[in-house]
Write a structure and sequence with these properties.
Bound molecules: ligand TLP
Strand content: 15-25%
Largest sheet: 7 strands, mixed
Structural class: alpha/beta
CATH superfamily of the largest domain: Type I PLP-dependent aspartate aminotransferase-like (Major domain)
Helix content: 40-55%
Number of domains: 2
Order of helices and strands: EHHEHEHHEHEHEHHEEHHHEEHEEEH
Shape: globular
Number of helices: 14
CATH architecture of the largest domain: 3-Layer(aba) Sandwich
Length: 342
């Protein structure tokens, strides 16, 4: 039986070519900033993002968390969308590690507006926790890979500057936003004080993320990376995978977007399924299931029995993610299984 694993773009395994490239990497001790391959990657991403400096970190979670700690003081709060990855899938780390609380607001498809952020700011009063940071997510995972409109980013950035508040972007899949819109990584990054980007999602590297910001910020982030166990010594082997991915896999992201849409089109007319096409913008497809006909859990189970793997994202929602290991034939097979099951 064919297996089509659409649970996440984190599932990709390094290709033979990537493994060979990793084997040849020059390495050194990165805690002493002496790993030439990590240094090369950091310089490349600093340049690509238009920021002064970059720091290689082990994961998207670590990237977000070192930034949160480097921006805030214990007792402060972070304003972010209720469905943000930081608020839902990072183990409560902002409270655990940085001692900050989350002030979540209800975004529309993951998009919070400047007006909403402004309303959530705390007045300077001894009773209130003080706002320490604003975080956005692009593309937005739980909203189904939705791209943050640049104009709204610009408005929130203006507000943040006016209020002297730092602005962080969880850009785990910023590559996808950039591939879909043609807006450069640098243009997206210029509105933020820090951005974290992942190599182990659509780009297909086995490990690794990076954070960017100004030199002084990255120095503080370096301190927290060490504190969080992220000083990985001869990590150049991993940075090599990221460099390989940037050269060979970045240009393929648009194919993932096309395949996610292909799947959406293939299942949209089926009984029990509804797809919001406006939200199918990149490599993630989230669709609704009519609970009167079938639950999301039951459908995921039935699909899984025929080799098509997906995640439930709530009682009536299912997520499917296209990635490097998914071909057009895999999507056709998945659509065929949907038709049989429903
Ligand atoms: N997301 C994973 C799961 O944690 C849900 C996935 O399968 O999509 N920011 C965003 C927007 C993410 O989607 C993820 C991973 C992260 C951060 C964390 O990255 P890692 O897993 O490298 O810590």
């Amino acid at each position: 039986m064919r297996t089509v694993d659409l649970r996440s773009d984190t599932l990709t395994r390094p290709t033979e070519e990537m493994r060979r490239y990793m084997m040849g990497a020059e390495v050194g001790d990165d805690v002493f900033a002496e790993d030439p391959t990590i240094n090369r990657l950091q310089e490349k991403i600093a340049q690509l993002s238009g920021k002064e400096a970059a720091l290689f970190v082990t994961s998207g979670t670590q990237g977000n968390q070192v930034c949160i700690n480097a921006h805030t003081q214990p007792g402060q709060e972070i304003i972010l969308d209720r469905n943000a990855h930081i608020a839902n899938y990072e183990c409560g780390a902002p409270a655990m590690l940085a001692g900050v609380q989350l002030h979540t607001i209800e975004g529309k498809n993951g998009i919070i507006t400047a007006e909403q952020v402004e309303r959530a700011l705390r007045p300077p009063d001894d009773h209130y926790p003080q706002t320490g940071l604003i975080c956005l997510e692009n593309t937005h995972n739980r909203a189904g890979g939705v791209i943050y409109p640049l104009e709204e980013i610009r408005r929130i950035s203006e507000l943040a500057r006016r209020k002297k508040l730092p602005l962080h972007l969880d850009g785990a899949r910023l590559w996808n936003a950039s591939a879909a819109t043609g807006i450069s990584i640098a243009e997206y990054c210029r509105y933020f004080d820090s951005v974290s980007l992942c190599f182990s999602k659509g780009l297909g590297a086995p490990v690794g993320s990076i954070v960017v910001g100004d030199r002084e910020f990255i120095k503080r982030a370096h301190f927290y990376r060490k504190a969080y166990g992220g000083g990985i010594r001869q990590g150049g082997i991993l940075a090599a995978a990221a460099l390989f991915a940037l050269e060979h896999h970045l240009p393929l992201l648009k194919e993932d977007h096309r395949r996610a849409r292909l799947l959406a089109e293939g299942i949209a007319g089926l009984p029990a399924i509804s797809v919001d096409f406006a939200a199918v913008q990149t490599n993630i497809l989230i669709f609704e299931v009519d609970p009167k006909k079938i639950t999301a859990d039951a459908l995921v189970k039935k699909l899984g029995e025929q080799g098509v793997k997906m995640f439930t994202f709530g009682p009536t929602r299912i997520r499917a993610v296209a990635h490097l290991e998914i071909s057009d034939e895999d999507i056709e097979y998945a659509i065929g299984v949907f038709k049989r099951v429903l």
